[in-house]
Amino acid sequence: MSELKCPDSLKEPTVTAYSVNSSPSLSPQDEKRLPTPSSESINLEGQTKSSPPYHVFSRSRKLQIVCIVSLAAIFSPLSSNIYFPALGEISRELNISMSLATLTVTIYMIVQGIAPSFWGSFSDVIGRRAIFIGTFIVYMIANIALGVSTNYGELMAFRAIQAAGSAATISIGAGVIGDITTSAERGSLIGIFGGVRMLGQGVGPVFGGLLSQYLGFRAIFWFLTILSGLSLFSILFFLPETLRSVAGNGTVPLHGLSKPFIYHFTGQKDAKPDSVPSTEKKKVTVKTVFEPLGFLGEKDVFITLFFGAIVYTVWSMVTSSTSDLFESTYGLNTLEVGLTFLGNGFGCISGSYTTGYLMDYNHKRTEREYCQKHNLPIDTRITTKTHPDFPIEYARMRNTWWITALFIVCTAVYGVSLRTHLALPIILQYIIAYCATAIFTINSALVIDLYPGASASATAVNNLMRCLIGAAGVAAVQPIIDAITAQYAFILLAGITICMVPLLAIEMRWGAGWRLERSERLKRKEQVV
């Protein structure tokens, strides 16, 4: 595989060098190679006084766009979670074992992991709108086919196609946010993005249980068809193209498929006739499709993604085993099982939402510490592009330790809690989901920070690792529970997570140095080219 081409935003080193109070530091040799701009050259958002804004959209306009892409991204978790309460009915109606019924979740997760790697690459080249529209059409067709499916083979095949259509919405949505935001404001918007889309985790199983109980499991897919049609309508009418090689910072006039229907009536108010994108548009090639896989060869990126994937897998194993465990342990019907997923769902929503604002607070806190250390005005807004030695890893990860510890403890006692009142495992599911989603949100923001010029592709690779490892976990959870009981199964999962904790320390200690090496390597390659 050929080397990755450096995104425009990475042509300057983006590395952590100096310690910020308790933050980790680089070696003296690395520090000598890092320039620090003077305070005179920096204005709000870390830009020079003469430079144009990173994006012309107002905060309220950015929130509108985030809401549109968040509602679109609901369908990836919703399509998976709305299905969980119906597994028992599917097993009975199609006359298959629970393990085979669970494999329809596994195939969904496998395709959910693979598909965004391709869609994300295309969206970083062609544009966000075109891929959004195309994937939604695929998704709607798959749901219609699932609604009339009559056997297990059809269910498996069209679940895979359904995943191919829905999974890309998360990586493309993250790409849109990366297009229009700086690192200082990105945390809260990523949190909102995660919180809104995780609404599917909260209400999906309730709707799934209700529809399956009274109308049959196929009604779930007709419900998804109608909802996805409404989301596609909002994209067609209100979502402008944001890819910076097409739309620039929002001032480039949009045409054709890049132009939302609403602009035909209101006009593009921020457009300037002579404005052109500052980033050159790439061509779609085979290399473009597979290029994001090269991100996994970067040590800091791999460690970040692998730790997040393990947490995702453990959480997925807790979630996917809920239906069978609660039916057999507490004698619940399909609707009642769906209601028990509310704890998990609202844990996801609150975890993403609060962590987004926590990251913004931590970013500002680290900025203040950095400014004090370097004698800069206290209100200077810092980015890794303008201040390459800003410790972005530390700013993002400074709360990961206690979140991970709480996740491990709750996972360990979850299996034992199934011997008690139903309320306790539901409460533990809330905490497990809260902590898992908090870690996902931190990981997502950090990956976008590491590759801001290819945010959709980077998020797709994040999704790839999570879903492939998660699919293996979901396929294995029922046999593990059958072999050693639920009590010891979840203690085992907690132990596996403990073994992964050193990865956090490795990233905090050496991640910045690896990022420096990558930046210099890519810079040398650009000079040769």
From TrEMBL:
One of its GO terms (molecular function) is transmembrane transporter activity. It is found in: Membrane. Residues 16-28, 36-51 have a biased composition (Polar residues). Residues 65-512 form the Major facilitator superfamily (MFS) profile domain. SUPFAM superfamilies: MFS general substrate transporter. Residues 15-53 are annotated as: Disordered. The chain crosses the membrane at residues 63-84, 96-119, 131-150, 156-177, 219-239, 301-318, 338-359, 400-418, 430-451, 463-481, 487-506. It is a multi-pass membrane protein. Keywords: Membrane, Transmembrane, Transmembrane helix, Transport. It holds the Pfam family MFS_1. GO terms for cellular component: plasma membrane. The keyword Transmembrane helix applies. InterPro entries: MFS, MFS_dom, MFS_trans_sf. It comes from the Eukaryota. The keyword Flavoprotein does not apply. This is Major facilitator superfamily (MFS) profile domain-containing protein. It comes from Penicillium steckii.
